[in-house]
Design a protein that fits this description.
Blueprint: H1 8-31, H2 37-48, H3 54-61, H4 65-77, E1 81-85, E2 93-97, H5 99-120, H6 125-145
Antiparallel strand pairs: 1-2
Helix pairs in contact: 1-5, 2-5, 3-4
Length: about 150
């Protein structure tokens, strides 16, 4: 079996617009549910990492703590999250999704999955296998960036 050497810069130039285009479509699915793609991402972070405080969440998302506070203010006004004081450390604010936030996140995920599944049905079995095999290396790219 021969190994084909691929130039990483050339591959990055081909992959980047595809990922950006895919991201744009997935963000549109969030908008259809009344939340922005960024809000959906924050809801997912809060649900996955409920122990994160505002500073930790800001660092994880690559924004300043004051900016994150403004984003969280909007989510709270929309009834998607609640902030409470930690029972063990009154200086810490705990974040949690409200039932409305859980429903919004679930709806966004369902819409995005349906959108992707519909398009994946148009691929051949060989193409589906190639996409499936690409998932692990792409996850490694994201994990290494964090």
């Amino acid at each position: 079996m021969s190994v084909v050497v691929v130039d990483s810069v050339e591959l990055a130039n081909r992959l980047r617009p595809v990922l950006l285009h895919l991201n744009r479509y997935l963000r549109r699915e969030a908008h259809a549910e009344g939340v922005t793609g960024g809000q959906a991402a924050l809801l997912a972070q809060i649900r996955t990492y409920p122990e994160l405080g505002v500073r930790d969440l800001a660092a994880r998302e690559g924004v300043s703590a004051p900016s994150m506070t403004r984003y969280l203010d909007r989510l709270e006004r929309a009834g998607l999250i609640v902030r409470t004081r930690s029972a063990t450390d009154a200086r810490r604010i705990r974040l949690a999704l409200t039932p409305k936030g859980v429903r919004a996140l679930r709806s966004v995920r369902r819409r995005r999955t349906a959108w992707l599944a519909e398009r994946l049905q148009n691929l051949s079995p060989v193409e589906l296998t190639a996409v499936d095999r690409a998932i692990e290396p792409l996850l490694r790219l994201v994990d290494e960036a964090a």
